[in-house]
Design goal:
Glucose Permease (Domain IIA), 15 strands, eleven-stranded mixed sheet, 26% strand
Amino acid sequence: MRRPCTHSTHALAWVLRAGTRRRARQWVLALAVVAVTVPTLAHPHPKPTTVYEVKDGDTLGRIAKRFGVSLRALIEANGLQRPDALRLGQRLAIPSAAVGAAPRAPAKAAARTPAHFVLTAPNLDGEGPLFRWPLEGPISSPFGPRRSRWHAGIDIKAEPGTPVFAAARGTVMFSGWEKLYGRVVKIEHEDGFMTVYAHNLQNFARTGDVVEAGQVIATVGRTGRASAYHLHFEIRNSGKVFNPLFLLPHRELRFVTDEESQPDEDDLAPW
């Protein structure tokens, strides 16, 4: 029997091996294309912004907390000139939120609103004084939920020694020192309203004084439990505490964050 040519056998084996190597390279290239393509197909476009329609009882703070975004980001995303004046049916862009995702539930610690907090615009039927701003400056901490607790007023940032004005005509029912508020002035107004001015450097108004709207009653400080210079301002009535932004005159608002951490100096402070 004739034996095959050795050279022909080696050539055939080389051809088969070369074909195997080509097919292997083709498979490697195919897998690489798939690996690159799959993530690309999974996210073909950036996620668009969620749009939320304002409902009865909504506040900007509640909406921001529900979707897990900051109040400042929500205001800037919608160019809101007056964040305290939402309208039913108003459409808000929610920045950096996943489309179709359910709103995030508030943290359990801050989910229950304290009974004396009024989060919506009060219906006063023309009653009560006409309040004015006690100080010009940006808001460094708004009214409502703050971390796991609740903030009973607004903080207005200002330089130390800046004059603080009475927000309306009334009688000073307290001027002195409290552990949390430091130097504080409390003024009683008509129809059961009271305003509170806390963390003052100096108090000029004395207990029993009758003061007029716009009268200098104190200066900005950081007394009591405060880590930065600001005025803590509250509006109260009949055992309730209101968001001052609903009762003060409209103006363009600026929100800032203090570089120093804010302690819970005003959260659920005793009255």
